[in-house]
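Milestone M4 deliverable, item 7.
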Amino acid sequence: MSIEQEEQSDIAKVRFFAQGYHAWRGRAARLGFFVLLVALWQVASSLDLWNEVIFPHPKEVADAIVLGMRDGTLPLAIEASMKRLCMGYGVSLLIGIPLGLLLGRKRLLDDTVGSLAVGLQALPSICWLPMAVLWFGLSETAMQFVIIMGSLMSITLSVRDGVKTIPTLYLRAAGILGATGWRFYWYVLLPASLPSIITGAKLGWSFAWRSLMAAELLYVTSGIGSTLMMGRELHDMALVVASMILIIAIGLLTDRLIFRFGESFIHRRWGFDGRD
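Output delivered:
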């Protein structure tokens, strides 16, 4: 092995260990932060700074989670909510990504449909619920409609903005090299817009999750939001807080297990994450 090859091997090892160190440091920091929050919660509860009916002790919340898992209430609620979310979110992606690509390329569409999308983006998703109930009744279809309308615009506008940031010179070069029609969208525009698509998908997931929770809070059915509402009606604050913790945990797991892979690919393909 030559000296140059040995140096490259040493550099690769240093990078590998540095990446591993930063990864473990981040995990330890997150874990320590949440442990500190729980410890502060426990200390404040022990000092009786508030009535436990208003806000429960950590042990009561933990007991509510364990009991809900044992009797199957929480697993069934999670399953029902995730099925609704994945269905509505999937439809939003199927519509929002192609629509965003078209808005980014067609000025007439952007001036008309794009302006409408910007206006609808400012409309809270819960505002769609009365219309959904009138159109579809108190049904799963109504909840899917709220989820789609809550996440579709954020995905569409993020993809549109990503297309607009692509240098015009690159797009013209692609046309000169023979990328026309659907090939232009599939092999040029879609890969070039991938960073914005990942961002839009992440935003769309957040809006879809919030829309679902709002719909389940108002429409009593199976789901995490309905479980939270049931805890409120029974004056069971431990169940309410337990449901909120599950909502937060699902959001964190989704971000770490799904979107983090997409973001890592973007960093490797287009650059690196320069955070300290």
